[in-house]
Amino acid sequence: MLGLFRPVASPAACEFGLADGSCALLRRLRADDAERLRTGYILLSEESRRLRFFDQASEPRLGFLDQLDAKDHVAWGALDAMAPDGVFMGIARYVRSAPETDAAEVAITVLDPWQSRGVGILLHACLHRCAASNQVCRFLYDVSEDNPRFLRHLRELGAVRCKTESHVVRLEMPVYGRACRVPRSTAAGRRFYAVMRALERAKPLAA
Ligand SMILES: CC(C)(COP(=O)(O)OP(=O)(O)OC[C@H]1O[C@@H](n2cnc3c(N)ncnc32)[C@H](O)[C@@H]1OP(=O)(O)O)[C@@H](O)C(=O)NCCC(=O)NCCS
User: Fold this and answer.
1) Ligand 1 centroid to 107 CA: how many Å?
2) Does the pLDDT at position 3 exceed 70?
3) What digits encode the pLDDT tens for the residues 162-200?
4) Which CATH architecture has domain 12-201?
5) For the chain, does the N or the C end have fewer beta carbons within 10 angstroms?
6) Taking the domains of the chain in order of start, what are their residue ranges?
7) Band (7; pLDDT cuts 50, 70, 90)
8) Is the CB of residue 111 below 6 angstroms from any atom belonging to ligand 1?
């Protein structure tokens, strides 16, 4: 019985087919991704920047790349498998909130042309799998009050609101290490479950 809920090992790089026929190449971010991220930031619309960073900084904050440790600070990116040398379609990361805590803060960004095509949910599922294998049990999300679509999506996945400050809503969600733990009573939950399940079955790519 216990084995049913044991988190699976953190996934290796893999390819994942999107519903529109595109293929995403998923892999962890590396220190040498700085230039790709800089280019991606320039391509991000003002509205997406505002919703993600709550400001309009002209330069991306890339210091986090040197702090990735595959455990407390983890970032994944999705590349277009047809253009693997190009910019990331999207990236997602979590950072443990404090040493020894089981909570981590999550942020997801998808480039505008790739939004609403399943990239965000895919990266989000990657984070859930990774976090569970690193003893992170709770995810925290800071989402702008005027991002109702994403707020609803997170609530449908089981997130609950903790507080709202300066028009930013903080939500908390359990980390679903395996597909079988994802609540499936909503359309978003069933979609997330299907992605987690597919990731569990994805063939790892050679590093
Ligand atoms: C929000 C975001 C990460 C979602 O990623 P995505 O790849 O566009 O989304 P997916 O296609 O995987 O769909 C997942 C859910 O994201 C939400 N979503 C999709 N496109 C969105 C958009 N343009 N704006 C806001 N939310 C969006 C939807 O709720 C969707 O679920 P639904 O179709 O059941 O309603 C992405 O649109 C984005 O980067 N937006 C700008 C930055 C931002 O808002 N980040 C969130 C704060 S951490």
Assistant:
1) 11
2) no
3) 999 999 999 999 999 999 999 999 999 999 999 999 999
4) 3-Layer(aba) Sandwich (3.40)
5) N
6) 12-201
7) very low
8) no
Per residue in 41-57, pLDDT (tens digit) is 999 999 999 999 887 77
Cα(100) to centroid(ligand 1), Å = 30
Is the minimum distance from the CB of 40 to ligand 1 under 6 angstroms? no
Give residue 11's pLDDT band: very low, low, confident or very high (50, 70, 90). low
**30-39 pLDDT, tens per residue?**
999 999 999 9
% of the chain with per-residue pLDDT over 70: 93
Q: State if residue 147 touches ligand 1 by the CB under 6 angstroms criterion.
A: yes
Q: Which is the closest atom of ligand 1 to the Cα of 187?
A: 34
Kindly give the number of the ligand 1 atom that is closest to the alpha carbon of 109: 39
Distance CA 115, CA 19 (A): 13
Asked if residue 90 has pLDDT above 90, the reply is yes
